[in-house]
Write a structure and sequence with these properties.
The protein is an alpha+beta fold. The chain folds into 2 domains: about 5-230, 3-Layer(aba) Sandwich (Rossmann fold), CATH 3.40.50; about 240-360, Nucleic acid-binding proteins (OB fold (Dihydrolipoamide Acetyltransferase, E2P), Beta Barrel), CATH 2.40.50.140. Helices cover about 25% and strands about 35% of the residues. The chain is built from 9 helices and 20 strands. Strands 6-7-8-3-9-10 form a 6-stranded mixed sheet, with helices on both faces. A 5-stranded antiparallel sheet has the order 13-12-11-14-20. A 5-stranded antiparallel sheet has the order 15-19-16-17-18, with no helix packed on it. Strand 1 (about 5-15) and strand 2 form a beta hairpin. Helix 3 packs across helix 4. The two termini are about 40 Å apart. The structure holds adenosine-5'-triphosphate and magnesium ion (MG).
């Protein structure tokens, strides 16, 4: 077990800057997720931690050991990839035993460890089979068993569940997480799936264009996004964004949009003092807007706006309504199934305690 530190990692491929100055501290035994869109540099970062790629600048530190230029085999890491990297000509037992054989463990110890790993992954009955006799999910369990059998200091996983069907993915998510809790191995897990990140990570590092945009617990990432990118990347349906001008009306702050005005009251005077008569980006999640008739009594500060129902998505557990307020569409998520008539007028209440306000210049969160 070890903590992992990245210091100013930069990696270029020709003209492409794949990783553009990354600093990250992963605690001993922590499960951290690198989350971001395709091409943002997740795999490259993971390969640099593994030692499969050398950075152009920066250092990789395990505990108090600088491993930047050490080959993978001297780092005590294991890696699990998206494709089921199991050897087709070897039985499951031999696949799992392989890394131990290379390390020249005695046979009895190999046997003990293989059985331990197989039991953890619930594949004990499959040890005698060949990979072609396994399902995709079982094959991926073999790959994970082989990765943990050496009891690595750091476990690196690159989208290990993305080849599995949706149901199995959900099941494996919680199993991998429980497994990690049990063996407490420091884990760095790459995914572009925000639900996977939210459900598995102790903390999430959200990446974009080779940079880390925010590091935090799933709750922090969701409730206090540090910038527009994180706010928009996490959450389905996506957070609503609209441009507004901050104005002062009779000592009160109001946000004025093309379609409606949101009174924010006095307490925002200080926070938004530098933005009066300037334009900002306002964000509010679909689940923080209610049809006025369904507004919960617990809502403390709300602002009402009106529009016309443009579209309805009935998901069973939730109902998503798209409301046209004149010049924009506001998306609202209500739990449960409800009937709404497309084309009919609707009044909405915005939960003002859940409002996000971002600067236009650098897209950082003000509130
Ligand atoms: N070996 C390489 N040669 C040239 N360019 C590369 C190489 N590896 C990665 N890149 C480029 O570096 C950038 C980051 O790639 P990377 O594979 O790290 O992204 P990613 O976040 O893992 O994406 P995905 O979610 O699609 O797997 C991309 O623009 C990619 O095209
Ligand atoms: Mg990748």
């Amino acid at each position: 077990m070890v903590d992992v530190h990245l210091r100013g990692i930069v990696k270029r491929f020709g003209k492409t800057v794949a990783v553009n100055g990354i600093d990250l501290d992963v605690n001993d035994g922590e499960f951290i997720v690198l989350l971001g869109p395709s091409g943002c540099g997740k795999t490259t970062t993971l390969r640099i931690i593994a030692g499969l790629e050398k950075p152009d600048a920066g250092r990789v530190i395990f505990g108090d050991r600088d491993v930047t230029y050490l080959p993978p085999r001297e780092r005590n890491i294991s890696m699990v990839f998206q494709s089921y990297a199991v050897w087709p000509h070897m039985k499951v037992y031999d696949n799992i035993a392989f890394p131990l054989k290379i390390k020249k463990y005695p046979r009895e110890e190999i046997d003990k460890k293989v059985k331990w790993a197989a039991e953890l992954l619930q594949i004990s009955e499959l040890l005698d089979r060949y990979p072609h006799q396994l399902s995709g999910g079982q094959r991926q369990r073999v790959a994970v068993a082989r990765a943990i059998v050496v009891e690595p200091a750091v476990l690196l996983m690159d989208e290990p569940l993305s080849n599995l069907d949706a149901l199995l993915r959900v099941k494996m998510r919680s199993e991998l997480k429980k497994l990690q809790r049990r063996i407490k191995v420091t884990t760095i897990y790459v995914t572009h799936d925000q639900v996977e990140a939210m459900t598995m990570g102790d903390r999430i590092a959200v990446m974009n264009q080779g940079k880390i945009m925010q590091v935090g617990t799933p709750e922090e990432i969701y409730n206090k996004p540090a910038n527009l990118f994180v706010a928009g990347f996490v959450g389905t349906p996506q957070m609503n964004f609209f441009e507004a001008t901050v104005s002062l009306k009779d000592d009160n702050i109001v946000l004025e949009t093309q379609d409606f005005t949101i009174p924010l009251g006095r307490e925002f005077r200080e926070i938004l003092a530098d933005y009066i008569n300037k334009s900002v980006i306002v964000g509010i999640r679909p689940e923080h807007i209610y049809p006025k008739t369904m507004r919960p009594s617990t809502l403390k500060k709300a602002s009402d706006i009106s529009g016309v129902i443009d579209f309805v998505e009935a998901l069973g557990s939730d109902t998503i309504i798209h409301v046209n307020t004149g010049n924009m569409i506001i998306v609202v998520k209500i739990s449960g199934s409800h009937r709404f008539e497309i084309g009919s007028p609707i009044d909405l209440s915005l939960d003002l305690d859940k409002l996000h306000i971002f600067r236009k210049s650098d897209e950082k969160a003000i509130v």
